[in-house]
Amino acid sequence: MHPKVILQTNFPGLKFLKRGKVRDIYEVGEYLLIVSTDRISAFDVIMNQGIPYKGMILTKISEFWFRFVEDIIPNHLITTNVDEFPFECKPYADALRGRSMLVKKTEVIPIESVVRGYITGSGMADYKVTGSICGIKLPEGLVESEKLSEPIFTPATKEELGSHDQNISEDEARKIAGDEVINFVKEKTIAVYKKAYEYALRKGIIIADTKMEFGKYNDEIILIDELLTPDSSRFWPADKYQKGRVQESFDKQFLRNYLISINFNKQPPAPDLPEEIIMKTSEKYLEALEKLTGQKI
């Protein structure tokens, strides 16, 4: 038996701010409360069913990485311990436990900071047509899942729910956020990726790419949202890696592959997922958590 899947939160005593693909966000005094549900999206479409344990896994993995890279850049996390949350959260402690983060309120920088260490996904599609990714010229002859000589910063727009984030060039990102901000964010994104990549590789996971988000807090740029989770990254088993083909994964690529196999048109409404796909996806997320952090749910 798996636990009750949480698809939506309802905390009438708290000020609801917004609902993302996975997270519900509340305002609690001077803080934000980010609650990770068990919703899962693919191709920017939210599935009808949730993935058991998913919200807890995302919270634990993000917390682990935020602590791990604090020496590179500070972040928005205050605590994940519900007993330390403000008083008004107490009536909902059981529902919040294990799946929520109390965080600083920031002014969000409106760019998805994507870093790629390998060529795959939309990057591969771009490269096949242009020989570049987001305007960065790459060597000829690269094959699916090939490791790049150096990680590259390939920003994307930050779109509202229901719209696809669009890959953009670094120059376009500078027009949106400014030179100084992009210089800083680019440097920190690559530094965080490199440190995490080396650690994960020792644990048997290749982080092929990931996206990060940043915000300003007291005039300082810090990491926000989630960090290096199976939702925001491609995690591949290192022992099965082989360039020239699509890789197995510990992330929702497994779900995407299933949807491609049934010719899903990448538009709502989402199809119902078979129990086998739901449980297999849950297992992959649990395995990523245990391999990276040594923790279990």
From TrEMBL:
Top EC category: ligase
Pfam families xref list: SAICAR_synt (PF01259)
Keywords associated with the record: ATP-binding, Ligase, Nucleotide-binding, Purine biosynthesis
Record-level Gene Ontology MF annotations: ATP binding; phosphoribosylaminoimidazolesuccinocarboxamide synthase activity
Pathway the protein contributes to: Purine metabolism; IMP biosynthesis via de novo pathway; 5-amino-1-(5-phospho-D-ribosyl)imidazole-4-carboxamide from 5-amino-1-(5-phospho-D-ribosyl)imidazole-4-carboxylate: step 1/2
Enzyme Commission (EC) number: 6.3.2.6
Identification of the protein by name: Phosphoribosylaminoimidazole-succinocarboxamide synthase
